[in-house]
Amino acid sequence: MSALVDNLPALLAGLGTTLFVLVTSAVGALVLGTLVVVARVSPVPVLRAAAFGYVQVLVNVPLLALLLLAVFALPDAGLIAPLVTTAIVVLTVYEAAYVAEALRSGINTVPKGQVEAARALGFTLSQTLRMVVVPQAARAVVQPLGNVLIALLMNTALTATVGVVELTSATNKVNLVQAEPITIFGAAGLVYMALALVIGLGAGRIEKKVAIRR
Amino acid sequence: MPATDAPPMVRLRGVQKHFGALHVLRDVDLDVAAGEVVVVVGPSGSGKSTLCRTINRLEPVASGEVLVDGVPVPAEGAALARLRADVGMVFQSFDLFAHRTVLDNLCMAPVMVRGIPKAQARTEAMALLERVGIADKAGHFPAQLSGGQQQRAAIARALAMKPKVMLFDEPTSALDPEMVAEVLAVMTSLAEDGMTMVVVTHEMGFARRAADRVVFMDAGAIVEVAPPEQFFAGGGSDRTRSFLSAVLQH
Fold first, then answer.
1. A167: part of which helix (H) or strand (E)?
2. Which residues form the ABC transporter domain (chain B) (predicted)?
3. Domain layout of chain A by residue ranges
4. What is the pTM of this model?
5. C-alpha dihedral over A81, A85, A86, A90, to 10 degrees?
6. In this structure, is residue B2 part of a structural domain?
7. At residue B70, what are phi and psi to the nearest 5 degrees?
8. What fold does the segment set A2-210 form as a domain?
9. Residue B156 in contact with residue B129, Cβ under 8 Å?
10. Does B132 reside within a domain?
């Protein structure tokens, strides 16, 4: 137990980094994923194809490979950014593909008649999306998005492999000195579980609030 | 009957459309005068719904002309949205916006598309709901209404845009018989008030009562156009007579 208490500042700093990476890349992925899905359902074939390609590439390349590429290959090509920033950008770009897929499944739950009714009333495409499709799709998409965010939380641990000192990395460092793996990693695991629980419960509450009767 | 020398509200000329190998509209010509009520009947798959949907370009046509109030229906874009704002449409499946109240359903398009102040839109919407007999449902969500009430709300939603012409695509086909009557009553009163209407329906009683002309379609082509008394007298083509004997027998 004292292994935890003695190293609390280092562990809390790691947790802080985890939360910072989680929140920033979550916001980024939600924004980018929304843009991708708008392109994916737009009437412009080039945009649709680009969005499709984006999702396919990122869903089919391991996140670790992307992290290694960004952290070790990009500087070689002359692109140098702070480590945490690089990790956040990679997580954002990667998770945006999953956000886009979750949003698209939500859009597919909106009956076609809703779109036709909006178009028949004279709504432009963007008005149709903003006023009719997105509000209804959002309701179907809260829980799947919650799952994407939980996956993102777990994926923040992967940034430890490229040198980001977040919770997993900080825990590992503490354990190297204290050698109490069960206590130390057990505690870190509980923190991850608690965070996932918060996200899951939050999504559940939001879903209940915005549910619509059909 | 409206004056015949005025330009037609809706004009279709040589309209062709295919769904893959299926030729759904074969060289369709039709004029609908301002204030006229045209009822389109015919067997399932005859292309009557598709015909209705070409008028506001929910279905683009392969060739031929579609004009509304003398203006060719434009390709997809802002100009098409403006034209659609002037063409009301009522669907078989009502398609009220499920996430908004009935009142919001009526106010959204006037406020967003026409730019009418919210308060004015609400006042006008309430008057329309009063007219179709569901003012007490203004604050309800669509799923809380019966089918007939939803369809009357959908008609009111279309009317809220003060359209030049109303399209009805099988408005009563998804309704119980009792609800059919309440929707047809609204449509009949609309026809009596001089609204230009194109109505695709299987309700022969409505066609007889409210139509200025009945259009009979079969296999994607207009077979016959006649005033209802003449149409139902059975003096038309063999195909018309066999259709009529089938639908009027029971």
1. helix A167-178
2. 10-244
3. 2-210
4. 0.80
5. -150
6. no
7. 85, -5
8. MetI-like fold (1.10.3720)
9. yes
10. yes
B48 in Cβ contact with B207 (< 8 Å)? no
Q: Does residue B5 sit within a domain? A: no
| Structural contact between residues B209 and B188, judged by C-beta atoms closer than 8 angstroms | yes
**B187 three-class SS:** helix
Quick: pLDDT tens for A36-52: 998 998 888 999 999 99
Chain A residue closest in CA terms to B109: A121
| pLDDT, tens digit, 9 for 90 and up, residues A142-178 | 999 999 999 999 999 999 999 999 999 999 999 999 9
The SS3 assignment for B212 reads coil
The residues that bridge with B197 in the sheet, in sequence order, are B37, B166
Inter-chain contact A116–B78, Cβ cutoff 8 Å? no
- Residues of chain A contacting B91 with CB distance shorter than 8 Å: 113, 116-117, 120
Q: Is residue A200 within 8 Å of A150, Cβ to Cβ? A: yes
Of B112, B157, B158, the CB nearest to A123: B112
Contact B70, A108 (CB under 8 A): no
Among chain A residues, the shortest Cα distance to B83 is held by A122
Helix (H) or strand (E) holding B72: strand B71-72
The answer to whether residue A209 neighbours chain B at the CB level (below 8 Å) is no
Q: Which residues of B touch A136 (CB under 8 A)?
A: 97-99
pLDDT at A212: 63
Q: What is the CATH number of the domain that holds B188?
A: 3.40.50.300
Q: Which two tokens stand for residue A41?
A: 């359902």
Residues 6+ apart with CB under 8 A from A101: A55, A59
pLDDT at B4 over 80: no
What is the domain count for chain B? Answer: 1
Contact in structure between B36 and B196 (CB atoms under 8 Å): yes
**CB-CB: which of B85, B89, B98 is closest to A214?**
B98
What gap in Å lies between CA A213 and CA B165, rounded to an integer? 32
Residue B40 in domain? yes
Edge-first strand listing for the sheet containing B196-200 = B87-90, B165-169, B196-200, B37-41, B213-218, B221-226
d(CA B196, CA B32): 8
Range of the domain at B115: 10-248
